[in-house]
Structures are given as C-alpha cells and as structure tokens.
C-alpha cells in the first residue's frame, strides 16, 4: 500500500485511493466505459472483476465497453460470460466473447483502430462516461503515466466525464519516459502531425487532464497476460523466407535500401516468424513503426538489426516479458509508445512509407483480402489496424497459410466471402507456396500468378477451372457469380472445399 502511495506524486490526489469495489459501485447501468488495454498489454485488471461481481444482483445491468484493442486478464471472457455488454468496440480476440457475439448476444463494432478517437472527438458515437486507465504512477504535475500500452487511453481520458486510475505496482516505473502522448486537434482545425521519423517525440510523457475528473485511484499488482504466440515452425519460416526474398529483390532493383523502410507487422505467430526471419538476413539499421511489438522485435534489437521501434503496445511471451521488463533501461532509448491513432495514422503511414505486413484469413483470385469473417458471417477478431496500414502503406503485404483445417479450406478462393482489404489496397500476397506481387497488374494479369505462386497445389486446378468458367461470362474482373461462393457453401454442407464442386 505504501509503495502504491509513493507512486502518486501529486499531493492532492493521494486521498482519492479507493477499493475496486467502491469504484465499481460508481458505474451505472447504461454507461459507456473507456478501458485502457491493447492486445493484452496495459489493460485494467481490478475494476472489470469488481464490476462483474457488482452486476450479479442486477440482471438487466449493461454497459458499452470501448478499449484500445483486445484485452488480457480474461476481462473480455468474464464480461461476455456475465452478459453485461450492450456494445463492444473496436477489437477483441477472446473465444468466449467471439462465440457470444456471433450468437448476437451483444453488438460488436469492428472498427479501424485509428478511427475510434476521431469518432469520439467528432461526437459521432457514444461519449465516454468513465475512463479506466492503467498507470505506473501519477507525476507531481498530475500526468497519468500509462504502462505497457497507450492504445486509446489519451482520447478516453480527454473525452470522459470521470476517470478512474489503476496504478499497477507490477508494472516497472522504468516505463516512465517511454511514452509520447499527442492528441491532434479536431478535424478542420488541425495542423500536420509533426512526426517525420519513427523516433520523433512530439507530445508529453503522460496524460494531462483536468484533475477534478480523477474520481478514484485503485492499486493493483498483477502482470500483463503473456502473449500466446507460438515460436516459428517450418511453415511460418518458409513464409518468412518468401517475404524476405521479395524484399531482397526490391533492394536489388533499387527500390529499397538495406535498411528497407519502417516496418509494421500484425499480431500473431506468422507475423512474429516473419520478423524473426530478418535476424538471418542482410538487412540492417532497420526501424519499426508498428502497433504491437512482439518478441521478435526485441531479438532484432538485441542482434543490433533494429535501431528504433515505435508502437502503441508491447505484448510479449512470458520469458521475453521477464527479460525485457526486468532490464528495461537497456531498451528504453530505442522505444516509443504512442496513442493508437498516431501509430496507425494514415498521414504518418503514408509519409514514412511503411512496409506493412498483416495476416489474412482468405484471399481471392484478384487480390481482395478477408481478415475478419469466417465464411463471410462469423467474426474472428476484427480488422484491427490492418486497414489503417494496408490502405496507406508503401507496401501492403498480406500473409497466410495456403490451406486451413487440414486442407479442407483453401485460403485462396474464387471470391472472398467478406472484403476487408480491396484489391486496390493489396500489393503483395505471401503463402508458404511463394509470393505474388500484384503491383501494377490488371485483374486478368493477377489470376494465374496468385494460383501458381500462392495457392496450395491441391487447389490449383480447381481454381483454374473456376477462372475458365468465369472467363466465359466475361468482364473486366471475370466472375461466375452463381459459383463464386460455392466453395464456401460446400464447406458448410460437406466439410471440405475440395473437388466435390464441379466447375
Ligand atoms: N477460413 C476459415 N478459418 C480459417 C481460415 C479460413 N480461410 N484460415 C484460417 N482459419 C482458421 C485457422 O484454422 C485457425 O483456427 P483455430 O483457431 O480453430 O485453429 C484460425 O483461423 C486462426 O488462424 P491462424 O492460421 O492460426 O492465424 P493467426 O492466429 O495468425 O490469425 C487472423 C489470423 C487473420 C485471424 C489474425 O491475424 C487477425 O485477427 N487479423 C486481423 C487483425 C489484424 O490484422 N491486425 C493487424 C494489425 S495489429
């Protein structure tokens, strides 16, 4: 407890310490909550549990929960199980929540991660009643210092009527000084965001708000949930090598140098494996401008390959978490944590000319990408930041394994069953089979390249058959609309996309 008070440097705030139960009693039915947390990092860990307990006696109690992205500490799971959600946005990755959302138990708004702040600022959706922000401590001048993510915490604090701060003693105080909090003006009154290099610092080290809004401070002492990525396997290593071959050929053709361009990579094991592959490459003096930093970025820093990394959250496996946060001084000068609207801002992504690598569920013959909806209907996680990056990057690269579910699903299909990234925003597709560089190619030039370089051999003939039947119908982007989704409906009815379809 004493250690907790020593982290509240502003003297007027020390008497605002309360229990999580008292803070939860302030939340009213129907409120909109803005919780810190981005991909399991920097989420609030005490209030959500107290809220679920408190709601047990009130069967109709429901709230809207807005966050940065997915939460750790099983918070999304307990919210979904307790049935207290009315609306959730902008991203989640919890299996229980996914199931309930797909059953229609609550509304989920799948939003580009850079958009939530703009919508709050423009008052085009519910405003935040209570922001709950995890912090390493509050400074003498009242700045709330975030922890392992910034996510949407700044806009939530600015927008909220009241703020509850969770000071987490398990988060190292060495995190102070690594954040860069910058909030653009309203659209229409805005100057250019003065960030021209990943390492530029343009804001304050903490969240500065009217201190009267800080209604309570809770102490917690619990680490972030570790990430559940698996180390690179043979298939993801092969994929990483294809991608590296592509980048090497860009260097050979003089389009990139050996330090490439600032890199963004999505979440998950494939993205981590791709970054891991850079360890063995000739690339050097790399910079990262991404949302989430996973284990591989720290390996690249250790190996002297990455000079600087900017992000909005740090999500690590348990051993890496101990290594990095147990020795944070070593990394601190090479890192910046920013709000997600800045890490994902179109203006900056375009200015820096990012190389952006994200994961797809399925891709089609013309390069459209589905990252979110299984069979076009069932939400997986959400679009996350992939759209922010793909639309604006110098190079929008999508990776996926060519088959799923032991080969019963082809990740290359005639027509994606849901479009997150249109053919206009997708530059390069990569699977373990190879890569297809779609830049400058018309629809009919793309098809054979994608089939031959990216589709699994067991599906190539079937895809060509579909294309032949589509060609008979003609058009700039030929399709046989009656057959376009037959692969998906056959999987639904027969459990496989293979062969049964006579095209
Ligand atoms: N149809 C149906 N299911 C498919 C599929 C397809 N075409 N392709 C993959 N799957 C299934 C897999 O079988 C696996 O199922 P399981 O959980 O039952 O094992 C699941 O989808 C996840 O696939 P996996 O290959 O393990 O990939 P992943 O963990 O890397 O996740 C996404 C892939 C697309 C779900 C994930 O990257 C995502 O949510 N992306 C969108 C957000 C984003 O890109 N953010 C980036 C900015 S940080």
Structural class: alpha/beta
Poorly predicted runs of 5 or more residues: none
Specify the biggest β-sheet: 7 strands, parallel
By DSSP (H or I, 4+ residues per run), the number of helices equals: 19
| Strand residue content | 15-25%
Number of strands: 26
Strand order of the largest sheet: 4-3-2-1-5-8-9
Distance between the termini: 69 Å
Hetero ligands: coenzyme A
Helix content: 25-40%
Keywords: Hydrolase
Domain Acetyl-CoA hydrolase/transferase C-terminal: 327-466
Domain Acetyl-CoA hydrolase/transferase N-terminal: 12-168
Family: Belongs to the acetyl-CoA hydrolase/transferase family.
Structural account:
With 503 residues, this protein is α/β, with parallel strands linked by helices. The chain has 19 helices and 26 strands. A hairpin with a 5-residue loop joins strand 6 and strand 7 (144-145). The model has no long low-confidence stretch (mean pLDDT 96). The structure holds coenzyme A. It holds the Pfam family AcetylCoA_hyd_C.
